[in-house]
Amino acid sequence: MKKIRLLPAFIILLAGAITSITLYVTEQDLITTLLVLFIVLFVFYFIGVLAMKIIVDYMNKKQPEEPVGEEGQVLEKEIQEE
Fold it and tell me: Is the pTM of this model over 0.85?
């Protein structure tokens, strides 16, 4: 679960690297490169956060819920001793 929190950082680093290489190869000036890179990083950060939230929500739905009593209290599970 902790590794999922790194997803937005991985996505923006990958997008930033691809953008930087592409703009360097096409010989863009510095101001254009920085402006495009900032916009790309901003957009892909939100894409990464959205992807992370979707994955976390999906994983939380897969986990079974603990049984709840009549008053809304969580019932303790019995431990079997051997």
Answer: no
